[in-house]
Amino acid sequence: MRDLSAGPRVLLKRLRELMAEPLEPQERLDRIVRQIANNMVAEVCSVYVLRSDGVLELYATEGLNKDAVHLAQLKMGQGLVGTIAASAQSLNLSDAQAHPAFRYLPETGEEIYHSFLGVPILRAGRSLGVLVVQNKAQRNYREDELEALETTAMVIAEMIATGELKKITRPGLELDLTRPVSIDGDSYSEGIGLGYVVLHEPRIVVTNLLNEDSETEIRRLATALGSLRISIDDMLSRREISMEGEHRDVLETYRMFAHDQGWVRRMEEAIHNGLTAEAAVEKVQSDTKARMMRLTDPYLRERMHDFDDLANRLLRQLTGFSPQSAAEGFPNDAIVFARAMGAAELLDYPRENLRGLVLEDGAVTSHVVIVARAMGIAVVGQATGAVALAENGDPVIIDGDDGKVHVRPVADLQKAYEEKVKLRAKRQEQFRALRDVEPVTKDGHRIKLQMNAGLLVDLPQLADSGADGIGLFRTELQFMISSTMPKGEEQESFYRNVLKQAGGRPVTFRTLDIGGDKVVPYFRAQEEENPALGWRAIRLSLDRPGLLRTQLRALLKAASGAELKMMLPMVTEVSEIRAVRELMQKEIQHISKFGHQLPKKLQFGAMLEVPALLWQLDELMDEVDFVSVGSNDLFQFAMAVDRGNARVSDRFDVLGRPFLRILRDIVRAGERNKTPVTLCGEMASKPLSAMALLGIGFRSISMSPTAIGPVKAMLLGLDIGQLSEVLMAALDDDTPGVSVRDLLLRHAEEHNVPV
Ligand code: PEP
Ligand code: MG
After folding, report:
1. Domains plus CATH for the chain?
2. In CA terms, which of 100, 297, 331, 425 is 20 to 30 Å from 684?
3. What is the pLDDT of residues 443-496, one digit of tens each?
4. Which pTM value belongs to this model?
């Protein structure tokens, strides 16, 4: 009787020898299929490889007609082989011809073989081809034979992935692994980037597939699993995490998977069949991923990501992979691919090398996107499947204008984009030429164009863009990127530096806006069901007066002898402003008592982000020196759409009547109260929406630095009087018909306003 466990081991040993021999690829593949057939006592063993045109081509066979090699082909989804590739699932059939998907290929002479066992050749859950064994007699292949064939398929996956089969691919054809793919996503930040893929969660490529001794590998796996479990328990027990909702859920899921006996058993089985511990982890990961990729249930898909993350952690344990070793090969033109990412993680990348960011999730006003936009890089979000389709180092084009990502683009497309980049550069040149041009509209209105910032690295853009100042300085970014709470002195020297670099142009500092999607690692609040409506921004500041007073003191000291402009985020009631003023007064007294020089002028403002303020406009304006509309949050609360949830965040238009009417009421209140009103949300960054803002009366807006040029170009060609007339009428007239957006577009076109 055959020794069942020795079978696959012997086979893998032979395959390892074959892989090491200096053979031509066809010869190697031929010998591999012969080995498999012999070892599995099969009359046929064949390899089909998926080409970039979606066709599975016979690359080698033992037992079928040899003349059919490179000729016999099946489309993805066609026949048994096509079904296996499309579903990424094995088929074990005692009577292949009776299967509804069976398709007879006369050139192969396979009609005499009844039993059929086919497995997908997988890599990172993607089908690269199919490996088949066949027998004349009707029989069912055993579970261990299926497992052995799947393990063997990994060796072939490695051959395909290393590009070895390229040499025996017919001219003009390409393998699927190198297939160009275009992914349609959403445009989150404009710009074109040409570069190379950097996977944010690097996929570890296992090259050491076959083991010398199973017992050693089983022990390695057990040790790695042990450390993994300890590290998860450790993370869970940390105080700051134990409070937090979502993060905790993920860790709990990790823990569940890490103790899952089924998972461990499947990995051990793969080791017994001859794989190294890391190859076993990868095999089970790939199988599971392939199966789960087709799930449509979002909850289960999310769990698949969790499982994938966990398997990657285990791989890192086993291979000693560290992010530093990944950083060494960081390309000059990097386009980072991630499922999701926090703002701080993006800031960890060397900024000068970043050309773009591709996110599978995300939403246009989420924090990481705001930071990416501030960095001036192209961002495409909702790029489904991007991470699985790309490999580290693949050439890629990100088109942030159209929301497209082209992985491994064909030469023509590459050329077309190179042209587009040149054109863009020319346009940028034109915008730069506008830097010193006064932003005055055709009918003589001087518009104040300011930029948004939050980090020191943003400051050079002030001079480069020609902005009038910084209309929104998000102080929380400094907190978000540090691992511990910045001390008072650190804050003070940071603000002083900002003012110095601004070189006399005004800077509006916004006090800490943490909470909601702005997570600060060392400051954990309690789990909240609706964090956007929860304990955040000024609410948190008022409940932690020590934190706020430290910041106010730092601001006052940093601006000593100069002008200090500051504003409060997320104000809901005017009384909150008064409360902060009182704290401010105390700080002023404190500072004077110790002989420090005070700012020579203090301008105190509030952000208008919560709809409740719309019914306190006059009281609000009586209380402050200026108002700045945070349209990102005001829109989210006014329309009841979560700005971080892509499913709804774009459902309603910021240029729709309801929102524009709200904004117009604010402008009118400003005029009535003689209070300066500005707007610093993302809608100021798009020429078309900026045009609408001017049309309803805004004369000051603050935007991402890269938007200054395009917005200035727009307003230089705009006659506000003309636009106002049509826009105001359209806002009063609610007869359905033309949308305000269309009307604005038409106006721009008719009057040659570049939007
Ligand atoms: C806003 O809400 O519009 C805003 C400018 O603040 P943030 O985007 O930082 O919440
Ligand atoms: Mg806000």
Report:
1. 7-178 (3.30.450.40), 181-204+325-424 (3.50.30.10), 214-320 (1.10.274.10), 434-750 (3.20.20.60)
2. 425
3. 999 999 999 998 877 888 899 899 999 999 999 888 876 767 889 999 999 999
4. 0.66
